[in-house]
């Protein structure tokens, strides 16, 4: 790849997981070139991509500064990026500390709790060919439960770990946007989970986040 930037980021204009990786790269001032796959054409399943990610899902990155090293799975990418390139710990906790494992705890929770449940709400609300009210109700309830977990912590502290912004916080942004604007009809985050809403709005106001999400909207409008 000849774009001259440090990373190639394989992503998707609509999906959330590529954007949270982009947030981290932007926050750290790392250069990257995004390649957006057309899922309708199954570009993410093509051999040209599965040679990098055998799971055929986005995101994945190639780190051209590190001998074209490839990492896939969004939170594994985030952990790789901060461990290797956030030496001043602008967005991360120093490895080996107790809080480092708290940071990992939240990254795992985002990947295993927030992402799958919120994604299933989206699937059964928007894409499943049949209406399955029981599935919609289950995953709506699970989405609110996950938000309740965040609320229980954010009522007592400003950020998830270390008393400051970290990748743990940033990893939740895209799916929370989807939940509050698309997935949960008639839902008022500020009313139901006020501490989480305050935290979420602070994250959205960050220039890197705001600018990238606006770029996403521009890309979607062009399709």
Automatic annotation (TrEMBL):
Catalytic activity reported: RX + glutathione = an S-substituted glutathione + a halide anion + H(+)
GO terms for MF: glutathione transferase activity
Keywords attached to this entry: Transferase
Domain GST N-terminal span(s) in chain numbering: 5-89
Domain (GST C-terminal): residue spans on this chain: 96-223
Any single GO CC term annotated in Swiss-Prot or TrEMBL for this entry: cytoplasm
InterPro entries per record: Glutathione-S-Trfase_C-like (IPR010987), Glutathione-S-Trfase_C_sf (IPR036282), Glutathione_S-Trfase (IPR040079), Glutathione_S-Trfase_N (IPR004045), GST_C (IPR004046), Thioredoxin-like_sf (IPR036249)
EC code(s) of this entry: 2.5.1.18
Pfam families referenced in this protein's UniProt entry, alphabetically: GST_C, GST_N
Family assignment from sequence similarity: Belongs to the GST superfamily.
Function: Involved in the oxidative stress response and detoxification.
Protein name: glutathione transferase
Biological source species: Phanerochaete carnosa (strain HHB-10118-sp) (White-rot fungus)
């Amino acid at each position: 790849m000849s774009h001259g930037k440090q990373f190639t980021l394989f992503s998707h204009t609509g999906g959330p997981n590529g954007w949270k990786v982009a947030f981290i790269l932007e926050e750290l001032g790392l250069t990257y070139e995004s390649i957006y796959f057309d899922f309708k054409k199954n570009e993410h399943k093509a051999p040209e991509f599965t040679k990098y990610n055998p799971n055929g899902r986005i995101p994945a990155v190639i780190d051209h500064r590190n001998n074209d090293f490839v990492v896939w799975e969004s939170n594994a990418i985030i952990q790789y990026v901060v461990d290797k390139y956030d030496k001043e710990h602008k967005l991360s906790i120093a490895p080996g500390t107790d809080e480092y494992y708290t940071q990992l705890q939240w990254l795992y929770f985002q990947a295993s709790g927030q992402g799958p449940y919120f994604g299933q709400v989206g699937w059964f609300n928007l894409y499943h060919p049949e209406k399955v009210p029981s599935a919609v109700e289950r995953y709506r309830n699970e989405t609110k439960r996950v938000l309740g977990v965040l609320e229980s912590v954010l009522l007592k502290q400003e950020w998830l770990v270390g008393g400051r912004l970290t990748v743990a916080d940033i990893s939740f942004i895209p799916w929370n946007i989807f939940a509050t604007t698309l997935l949960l009809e008639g839902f008022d985050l500020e009313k139901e989970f006020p501490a989480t809403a305050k935290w979420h709005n602070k994250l959205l106001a960050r220039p890197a986040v705001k600018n990238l999400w606006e770029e996403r909207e521009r890309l979607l409008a062009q399709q």
